UniProtKB/TrEMBL annotation, chains A, B:
It comes from Palleronia pelagia. It catalyses: 5 isopentenyl diphosphate + (2E,6E)-farnesyl diphosphate = all-trans-octaprenyl diphosphate + 5 diphosphate. GO terms for molecular function: all-trans-octaprenyl-diphosphate synthase activity; metal ion binding. Its cofactor is Mg(2+). This is Octaprenyl diphosphate synthase.
Length: 329, 329
């Protein structure tokens, strides 16, 4: 296959067969004879043909260890359900913030559906895990679910809090992204019956990949000229304490500190503030520093893979770690 | 003990010791070192000293079958966590409806916390179940969670829909109340290692009790002179298709039908409509009929208990079924 083909596309090709089973399972389990609204709400999310990174992580982790199914398919669908449920609940949390306390009735209707359909997907994912019959898998995913929810609450309370440090940021990032990435790879290893040290290696890979992924996401918020449909500085406007801002705040003194207190701490933002924030980030090397930290996590992810069986799937996971940070190079 | 003492108070007395353990477990598991907001939000809900009906159902079901712990305590805490999580998510769904699309920023902040802390409690409950090591328990509670979420979505879509029939109503009621009641009693029997027919009897008891409980709740919405802090006709104003309304609508013709189409179907309510609705409910015996149906479900609950060991706890559960419908006599 062409070397220019992206690693997630190569994974999708190598895992085409089980991925098709995952898709079929997702469609079957989303259905609800009692509440037809449920597939209506989830269809555009799950059916929109996202990259399916998380289910591919589970399938790759299981199959690189020689597993041939069927329960990696259940677990891949589980992971995608959990991801979709958190997206639905994030919508409620994020949208209401953006509209500054004045959502439309239509938005509220969506909020109701988002909350309840998210709950339904959580319950469905839970049923899928039970079908695997593996208590270890249930334990891993229950812990991941708690970390995810805790991280979301932490993000909510850390917002606009200038005292937020890198340790808290890492907990938030684990909740937002890395906990599900690492659970996805870990349960793949567990269901394959892999040795404990290999399962731990997979868990570490998923964790580091997820952290790198989220840091890159936070960096892209400051990157101009992309057609990813996001505006530059959304996080700044929403007063989120992302790593670049945390580092610029840590280096701030005098007037700079006053600026952050006003714009992030008190949320009094004016024209020109975004440009000033960017300037401060550059002045203190906060963007370059975050980029280096993200690359270090990607290296850690690749390093984690070394004890795993040397095969094509492992190579693709290694390339995936490079690709995640290549988005910002 | 005085015969005037209510059955749930007698249960609380008989189960005082394990209930104290449940309370301690709930407090311990609510805590989050990473996100102190979580106990803040849950404290007033769980700590407010509710009747703890659901955890008592689990403890009673286990102990009437000779179980001495410890996992009924985990499961009782699980059930209370799930109940609290659904209350938190219901708040989001109900409050936003009441404010007609114009909630305050403060309300929205609560919405965010409600969604995320509810998710956290779901995850915590899931961890507690895993600790019991019983895959059968996990299966029962996963199915209950799916039924609950489905019922909530169904209620949302059935709202203001005059074609809603009694079959749909029963599905909604199972989702709102009976699914968790029956899971609570069923897992109590399972963890006690009770025979399959006894587990099924417990499941049927919880289901019937929950249905009677919810029907009474829907009737109380029309009862004047209570100091329960609810206004008469809240369900009518919110255009909920409860059993009394379903029956009055089923009997409606001509002008009566036009009335329901306007007030429930299109939501155009005026002064005097509530009184007119009450009059129609009385004219068609919809309140008396619902009361009879609720009593029949309570009888079914009592009947279900007959194969279970004849002891004090069983007597209390029987009296509890009578008490639930006595509220409307």
């Amino acid at each position: 296959m062409d070397a220019q083909v992206k690693p997630h596309e190569r994974l999708a090709h190598a895992l085409a067969e089980p991925l098709a089973e995952v898709d079929a399972m997702i469609r079957a389990r989303m259905a609800s004879e009692n509440a037809p609204r449920i597939p209506e709400v989830t269809d555009h999310l799950i059916g929109a043909g996202g990259k399916r990174i998380r289910p591919m992580l589970t399938l790759a982790a299981a199959r690189m260890n020689g597993y041939l199914g069927p329960y990696d398919v259940h677990l891949a669908a589980t992971v995608e359900f959990i991801h979709t449920a958190t997206l639905l609940h994030d919508d409620v949390v994020d949208e209401s913030g953006q509209r500054r306390g004045r959502p439309t009735a239509n938005l509220l209707w969506d909020n109701k559906s988002s909350v309840l359909v998210g709950d339904y997907l959580f319950a469905r994912s839970f049923q899928l895990m039970v079908e695997t019959g593996s208590m270890r898998v249930l334990d891993i995913l229950a812990n991941a679910a708690a970390t995810i929810a805790e991280g979301e609450v932490l993000q909510l309370t850390a917002m606009s809090d200038l005292s937020t440090g890198e340790e808290t940021y890492l907990k938030i990032v684990r909740g937002k992204t890395a906990a599900l990435f690492s659970a996805a790879t870990e349960v793949g290893g567990v269901i394959a019956g892999a040795r404990l040290d290999l399962v731990q290696a997979l868990e570490r890979y998923g964790d580091a990949l997820g952290i790198a992924f989220q840091m890159v996401d936070d960096l892209l918020d400051w990157q101009r000229g992309d057609d990813i449909g996001k505006n530059v500085g959304d996080d700044f406007r929403e007063r989120k304490m992302t790593l670049p801002i945390i580092r610029a705040v840590a280096a701030a003194e005098g007037e700079e500190w006053t600026f952050w207190v006003r714009t992030i701490g008190r949320g009094k933002q004016e024209d020109g503030d975004l440009e000033r924030a960017e300037e401060l980030l550059h002045r203190h090397g906060a963007l370059d520093g975050t980029r280096e930290t993200a690359i270090a996590w990607a290296e850690d992810a690749k390093e984690a893979l070394s004890p795993l069986p040397d095969n094509e799937l492992r190579d693709m996971l290694r390339d995936l770690a490079d690709y995640v940070v290549a988005r910002i190079r």
